[in-house]
Design a protein that fits this description.
By secondary structure, this protein is of the alpha+beta class. The chain has 27 helices and 33 strands. Among the domains are: 191 residues, Isoleucyl-tRNA Synthetase, domain 2 (Alpha-Beta Complex); 70 residues, Rubrerythrin, domain 2 (Single Sheet); 135 residues, Isoleucyl-tRNA Synthetase, Domain 1 (Orthogonal Bundle), CATH 1.10.730; 60 residues, Ubiquitin-like (UB roll) (Roll). Helices cover 35% and strands 19% of the residues. The protein starts with 5 loop residues before the first helix and ends with a strand. Bound molecules: ligand ANZ and zinc ion.
Amino acid sequence: ESRYNPASIEEKWQQTWAESSLYKTSTDAQKPKFYTLAMFPYPSGNLHMGHVRVYTIIDVIARLKRMQGFRVLNPMGWDAFGLPAENAAIERNIHPAKWTYQNIAQMKQQLERLGISFDWEKELATCSPDYYRWTQWIFLQFYNAGLAYQKEAAVNWDPIDQTVLANEQVDSEGRSWRSGAKVERKLLRQWFLKITEYAEELLNDLEKLPGWPERVKLMQANWIGKSTGAYLEFPVVGMDENIAVFTTRPDTVFGVSYVVLAPEHPLVEKVTTPEQKQAVEAFIKEVSQQSEMDRTAENQPKRGVPTGGKAINPFNDKEVPIWIADYVLYEYGTGAVMGVPAHDTRDFAFAKQYDLPITTVIVPDDADNADEELTEAYTETGVMVNSGPCNGETSEGCKLAVIEYAEDEGYGERRIQYRLRDWLISRQRYWGAPIPIIHCPKCGAVPVPDEDLPVTLPENVEFSGRGASPLSQLEDWVNVPCPSCGTSAKRETDTMDTFMDSSWYFMRYPDANNDQQVFDPNIGNDWMPVDQYVGGIEHAILHLLYSRFFTKVMRDCKLLNCDEPFSRLLTQGMVQGLTYKNPVTGKYIPSANVNPEDPKDPETGEKLEVFYEKMSKSKYNGVDPLEVMAKYGADTARMFILFKAPPEKDLEWDDADVEGQFRFLNRVWRLVSEFAEKMPVKSSKKAGDLSKEEKDLRRAIHTAIKEVTEDLDGDYQFNTAVSELMKLSNAISDAGCKNSPVYREGIETLLKLLAPFSPHISEELWQSLGYKDSIHIQTWPAVDTDALVVDEITLVIQVNGKTRGTIQVPAKADKATLEQLATDSEVAQRYLEHQELKKVIVVPGKLVNFVVPQ
Ligand code: ANZ
Ligand code: ZN
């Protein structure tokens, strides 16, 4: 009997599986399809524990579904465009493409080391021209459908490096991560996708996703942010202009004491009086330095200046001043607000600050003193006061009345407003898919013809991190004739947000190697939607929302016929490491420098804080998957990850539990090896001929099948499934009937149930039983419900509540029979001798208690 040596068997099987293309996607049309997908990684070059967790989860599901008779598509690829590659180019003078492909090769090897059953024939990398050709093509479908357009938008501008920055590159103080310069907001012409056109459907269709976590659906709904209210117009005094406001509270219109424009609003210049011009301009400059976050932060003081202009409230003909203020955002609603200090918290703070009038127009139903001065805004519903014709009505009723009146008189209309904004996809960056547009002085924006796609990235580029986007500096590349009229024209030099690459990759996998089409719609429709998607909660909004948007647009372009891309979604929890922190200095200390019995800072002697936190380099709490696999093997690493916590919960790394799983696999190894050496029977016995021992073992086997299958088919409760496997292994090892066919059934079942979790050891042991076919193409065991029937149970015999012994009785015996059997038992005979019986209590299925005088 040989020792369990994961290193040698794991590598051997990984090779064998690859050579036999074991995980190639089946084309057997008889089988139902199952599309498993884990979010593809950014190829940073190194696999971390978070990757191990998500890819192990998807692998268990894929292997299970294959054994359950599905044709499974379980593909893998690389989200390979993006900033880190460009930064590597700037910092280390290595071309982004080279850096990226090196990382891909390395990570692929590491993934293979984990034994994940991907169909590598479907592999894709978003930075490859074969892929981004179609990203560009899809952009043009959006463009042709009127869903892609250009407009001026504010971007983060670094005045020292002369470049646009992503939000992630601006620190919390508003400074550039590279130059340290205070970032400015600058208006640039940018490309947008009209996701707002799909806002209502994106919101409503969340109902079609019962297999998604409620939390994720709620986050999406909030992000879309539907508000119902009105659009109302306030004429500007002395001018032929109206200020349009969006309000969710038309009922408060009689309480308006001022109107506010966002500083960026185009009417600001017009309405500002000469006396206020200087103050207004200074304020606009100041606000332009602030981020949207700062401007809308709740406890931030609200600031503004009067423009000197005035507007008329058409509902009561009152003149109100026009202000500009930081808390009004240009991009939301109409970029203007009616200020109602009595009933809006922000307006209240603003009015207090600048001594503007506060008029109460709603009072609580039970108010006894409506004229009392407010100490804060009253934001609830109630009864109308100071509201002309509305006085005495409920505020809810007044809402409708005001809208109807506005519609009749032409002052406004009902309006649904979404917080969701159109998606800005322009990036002034090199490492992304070029936007396939040519700007012609005569024709304007002209799409690159399909036959000229892809617009490839030029290779000889300078990466300095300074100046405009690298592409715009390449004259040769930029200057081209217009495809439509031939005039000299210029290429668009912006590239696309990498979220565009990842918004459709799941549509590409089923037909990943198609060089004629984005994908064959028949193949796409065969596989879509993804049946089970797994990924991190950090993508709850953007990636998942964009992917849903793309799916709907592709549907409307007649390329797909599904409404939603991902039927079920599992968001896996984080992997946390043991973290040591000096509470005084705030420094994190590597565990190697700490005595776990008495954790102290080796430098200062300070007692350390000890806790679990998401693994990260800067906290020195990471565990390297490669080291774990080198020590224990991939199977143990997988078992630990699956066993330690339910998949959606955070998981605390624990070396002792890793050891525990390693010991379990060793037990399985010994159990099966001992059996395999004896070349045991293959014949089967009729159920009726089974001994009690055999029946008990069969019950354990089929209980395990039932439990494991239910744990997996329900909510993927891998942790409890692993516990069931441990129970079964114990039952087998305790069983006496080692030569029985039932014992063989036990061994084989254990291996099959273990196969999705620990694919290598189960394959090795399976083939040691003499089988030549892979265990991973075996049929998932079915429950024999007859085997589950318990025909004898253990009955406890008590005397005055004290347990005196047990007997075996038929499981179906009724109360009277139980009492009889108990009375006749040897135990009862012995303890009840010469005693007068007062009472007998029978609890079927459990016990019989004889009560005698004490
Ligand atoms: C008057 C009013 C009175 C308001 C009142 C509220 C309470 P949501 O639910 O987020 O859609 N608003 C509208 N456009 C804005 C902008 N561009 N920047 C900042 N605030 C803006 O909120 C809608 C409310 O937010 C609107 O209703 C408006 O204030 C404000 F007792 O109008 B309300
Ligand atoms: Zn032209």
